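Lab notebook: predicted structure, single chain.

Context: the supervisor wants predicted structures on file for every construct in the current expression panel, including those that have not yet been purified. This is the next one on the list. No modifications to the sequence; it matches the entry in the shared construct table.
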Amino acid sequence: MPVPVPQQRGVPAAETPHGADLTVLVIEDDPAGSITGPELSAAAGTRVRVRTARNLTEAGRLLTDDVDCILLDLALPVPTTTTTATATATTTAPAAPDHRPEPAPGRADELAVLTHVLRIAPLHAVLVLTAQDDTELAAEAVRVGAQDYLFRGELDARVLSRAIRYAVERKRADLAQHQLTESGLRAQENARLERGLLPTPLLDGSDLSFAARYRPGRSRALLGGDFYDTVRTPDGTVHAMIGDVCGHGPDEAALGVELRIAWRALTLAGLCGDQLLSTLQQVLEHERQSEEIFATLCTVDIAPDGRRAGLCLAGHPAPLLARHGRPARLLPYEDGGPALGLLPRARWPRRQVELGAEWSLMMYTDGLIEGRVGAGSSERLGQDGMVAMVNSRLEQGLAGEELLEAAVAEVRELNGGELTDDVAVLLLGRDPERIRRRGRSTSRPGPASTTPATAAAPAAASAQRPPLYGP
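Prediction complete. Output recorded below exactly as produced.
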């Protein structure tokens, strides 16, 4: 008679701790020839419970989560009602994806009983029994999905107990490797998705230089709650934006992407200033997960001649402006409005800023200024510390990409390690000498004169997505 089925437990078979009791399901049509539980227990040094099934239908009823290993006789005939056996299988473990190879041509019928068991028990170790003179069939059974094989003539308690332990451990390793592979593929897919959501600046035809750095605070992520974008509209105005959604999780990252895309669409549609920010607040209110979620924002629209700009602040730190021959300073913050999502029907005044002929404008999120200034220190860098740091780098002659690289590296070094908050930094600049040099090169006669005007845009203006600084 079959051994009564004990109460199922939640741990799948492949997760049975080493040295614990084992439950073996023997599937063969001659149960009198099986080794008993006491024999296996004595050989294994631990308690081994044996259940016996005479056919696949009976095996389907006895197959539960607490079975650690299946001992299958390959000579067992396959009944025509295997689909019924599949339907009556009681295992509650989640099914694993079936990536097992098909049997070799001519072996399908001989391995039909094995392929059926592998289908109904994807998370269990399977040990097959075969005749002494059929080593090729035994090897093919392992290739198809069994963990090991034994010859009937060698079937004794000592050999069988060792083979069962080996099959269980090998199945555990196979499942762990499968989960690791799936996790790696999922991480790669997520990385491609997140990288595709990072912005590509639309600055073709602009005289301005562009540089950016982005580092998410989330571990093993490419995208955080910080967001930025830069576009040039047909009238020659360059619009730049940087923002920060409160929080650091994937929901905040998704909301940041929505706000960035909405800002780009509204900007290209001709909106700016208070009208644009009011519409963005409506987007935020409809898309956020809770009413406590808000976002800070800084927008700048630079006139086509590059000498003036309009500035709007929504609870965001003021940009840093460095003019030629002068130290960098923060732009006025007094006329800023509240963060998006805090106050209904709020207003955001637009302030006019004189940039001059040669300048650099750095926009950033608070992750850059909230880092510590020493391991274990409670003091934060702050805006004053950031201004002093940038000025020291400007005195060294750094600009563009090199300036941002040095600034982010120094902030991390002062913090004594990785920053916990997202960091986004955007740098726009105007250099009249470089503009004149490019103008002279494009005005020379020759084959280059047939190049479209957009091709003359500086390499920085058509830059691709910025380097990422993740853990």
